[in-house]
Amino acid sequence: MPDYIVAVRNVRKHAFGAEPGPTRFLKVPGNQRPKPEHAQRRADWVDDVLALGRTGRDPHSGEDCGEIVVLVHGYNTSPAAVAGRHRQLKNNLAASGFRCALVSFDWPSDDRAINYLEDRSDAKLTALRLVDDCITLLAATQFRGCKYNVHVIAHSMGSYVVREAFDDADDRPAIAANNWTVSQMCLVGADVSRRSMSATDARSRSLYRHCTRLTNYQNPYDRILKLSNVKRAGVLPRAGRRGLPPDHPDKAVNVDCGSHFAAHYGDSGDDGHSWYFEDAVFLADLVATLQGDRDRRVIAARRLDDLAELHLR
Q: I want to staple 299 with a disulfide (CB 3.0 to 4.6 A). Which of 84, 169, 205, 288 is the partner?
């Protein structure tokens, strides 16, 4: 089964590099490293993704129905690692019984941790490409006679890419004129400031406006997001470590994964940042969130504490 990836990296010596480049819609053969020659015509790529994500037909309207999940990776991620994470999540979603088409948005991120600040700059630049070549594309899909749910899973600095992309989309009349929406927005180990996720902060206003529900998965034991990490230059406390601020919109929900991580990984030396995608309890919670059949407070993998805050079991 091929893998569908949107790559916005440059090409050097017939391979993808770590700088911004033109958008390529890749159809990558199973178990192969993404290569520029895997590029497909955009229209053909879209048709393939829609066919893969189709789950049936609406008995009342006769319209096709389906599910598309867009995965946006974090910093310090090579094209090979992007493909590996993509395949890992694709297999886990399939094993859970959740039928969907998974698409990865591969923005230019180096495979060296020392490039944090450069990656962040590239993330800002490529957010514009996410608007032009993914958000516009998915918005148009919702107006061509299809009833597809489009979900976004953003890990680490990928949350910053998505937030900037949504904000930019509202500044573009051609996109803002359409009432486009993603269904479930899932931020995992989000490398965005906690304060920016406030309901009154202009930076995230568009992010909240254009999703049905936003779920933030945090881990207070995340060592990558600690303030003392010199690679991160002492930026403000992150939503992926500290959680959402108290004044977040009602459509947002925070899931504290700290007690679960401490119980199962606390003595393992894990940095607490990428464990989510290998954890069965988190994946069950993620699938239930994408399905959207249960209220946020009764998803089986969650529990409420005495302060009515949600925790991963």
A: 288
CB 191 within 8 A of CB 225: yes
Q: What angle do CA 195, 198, 220 make, to 5 degrees?
A: 50
Identify the domain containing residue 70 by its residue range. Answer: 60-312
SS3 122: helix
At 205, is the secondary structure helix, strand, or coil? helix
Predicted confidence band of residue 31 (pLDDT cuts 50, 70, 90): confident
3-state secondary structure of 300: coil
CATH number of the domain that 164 lies in?
Answer: 3.40.50.1820
Q: What is the mean pLDDT of residues 246-269?
A: 96
| 278 contacts 188 by C-beta, under 8 angstroms | no
Give how many domains the chain has, as a whole number.
Answer: 1
